[in-house]
Each structure stands twice: as structure tokens, then as C-alpha cells.
Amino acid sequence: MKILFIGTVDFSYSCLEHLIDNNFNLCGVITKRYSKFNSDFKDLSPLCISNDIPLYFDERLNPQTKEEFIAEHRPDIIYCFGWSHILRPSILNAAKYGVVGFHPALLPNNRGRHPIIWALCLGLDKTGSTFFEMDEGADTGDIISQRDIKISPHDDAATLYEKIKVSALNQLLEFSYIYENEGEISNKVIQNKILGNNWRKREKMDGKIDFRMTSNAIYNLVRALTHPYVGAHIETNNGDVKVWKTSISEVEYPNNLEPGKILDISDKGEVVVKSYDGAIVLIRHEFKELPKINEYL
Questions:
Q1: Alpha helix locations (H) across the chain?
Q2: Is 49 in a helix, a strand, or coil?
Q3: Domains of the chain in sequence order
Q4: What pTM was estimated for this model as a whole?
Q5: What distance in Å separates the CA atoms of residue 198 and residue 112, rounded to the nearest whole number?
Q6: Buried b vs exposed e over 197-234: b needs ≥16 C-beta within 10 Å?
Q7: Phi/psi of residue 54, each to 5°?
Q8: What is the pLDDT of residues 110-125, one digit of tens each?
Q9: Which one of 198, 216, 220, 266 has the fewest CB atoms closer than 10 angstroms to its CB?
Q10: How far is CA 69 from CA 6, 27, 35, 73, in A?
């Protein structure tokens, strides 16, 4: 079975490497040299070069189209993992067994953008690892493999990303062997496109820490946007300040103090700030100069 691979992020790299290590026949890879759009971008070209896999860079100056590259290498199936663009029908129909996509959520719920970030930001206790046969919709195709992924209160973007990846790599081998040996997945689940919801694209304002939020809401926001993502931020008179890690203070402060008031600063530079319902500790942050106790953020 000839597999053509499309992707451009850290997860894509892990999947491609896993397929190579398990001796699947990779007939080509479509990727990008760089992506400002993906904060978890990872260059796939070293894997392709070291394993003699034909490589196509998706860029305007490339005289060959993606469709021409795919037709040249005649894949039996296309895997598209970590590619933030809708594929045209000419690509969806280019391989015998179609295109398999991936979404880190429990489809049909939570289709759409930034699923790891939204799951943490909303304080969910469960998400998923779902592979599906891509159609012209966004995350709406028939499900071929799905696993539940538990979310701990201590998980952040990096740890949840890794949990999902571990499950996904196991799933990838399972269904790849089925495609290779049987040609079709017999137990596909057809998605009801009326069910479920679609998460919207996040904007910069969605990453703003407003201390009128509850401590738990701030904690969830920060752990959702930490590495490998862009980070939550505080707006100050001297520009935005990134915050990468917080904890909810166990100290009980008077409830007549206003949100945003700085209550304490530790010797380690941890800043304690009044929130709507308590206090939040800014553990890892990018203050160039620490604020002072009793000032406001």
C-alpha cells in the first residue's frame, strides 16, 4: 500500500516517523518550509531526505501543483495530519481509499478550530483522538478510529498534546494495517452532521487575562495557551506580558479587595493577584520589571 502524507506540525512529524519506523511505503510527502500559522510547526524535510521520500513544498513558486505531485506518485491512500487547510475535491478523490484526517476531539462533538486549547480553556475532563475519512466538510467524515483521552486538572497544552499523540500513534498503526491487509475499514461510524458543535477560531482577545475572571478560569486559560502555543497575556501600559504557568492561591484574602490588585510577590518573582473569587499566582511570566504590591493589573 502506497501512502502519501500531508502535514506540517510536530504531530505530523511523529506520525510520519512512526510510519517509516514500521516500514510502511511512503510514496511522497506534502509539507511547508515554514508556517507562521502553526505555533507547533515542525520541518518534515529531514525525515524525507534521510529516507529518500519524494518531497513537495506547498508554496506559490512551486511550478508543480499538489494534484500533479499526487498523480505522479499514485498513492493508494492519503494521510493528512496537521494541515490547517480544507482539501479540494481533486485531492480528496485522488487516491483509491481517499484521505484520512485527524482531529483531537470526540467527534461529532467539538469540530473546528483549536480543539486542545478549547478543551483546556473550558475545563473539560475528557477529549478524544479521532481519525476519519475526509469529505468536503470540516471534520465531518466517517470515523475509522476513536479513543477517549482523560484530561487531568494538572494537564496543560504540552501534556495533553503528548497524551493525544501517544494514543494516536497506536491507532495509526492499527488502521494502517487494516487498510494494507483488508483494503477497507469495515466498522466505520457515519457522523450525523446535525449533531455536535463547531469551535470557532480563537483571536488574540481570547488569550487576554482579565482578573475579573474567576481564579479557575484564569488557571484554565493559561494552561490552555502555554507551550507549544502562543501563551496567555496581560495587557499593561508597557505592552502585553505573557504568562505561561499559574496556580490558584490557597491563601484566603479579604473579599473586599478589587480584582487585579497585586497582593504579594515572592522571592522567586511569583506574583499573587486578586481575582474575582480569590487570588491567582503568576508562576512563570515575562514581566521585564516586576510590579509592586498594591499596584493593579
A1: 10-21, 45-50, 66-73, 89-92, 115-121, 157-182, 215-225
A2: helix
A3: 2-199 (3.40.50.170), 204-285 (3.10.25.10)
A4: 0.93
A5: 5
A6: eebeebeeebbebbbebbbbbbbbbbbbbbeebebbbb
A7: -55, 135
A8: 999 999 999 999 999 9
A9: 266
A10: 12, 10, 21, 7
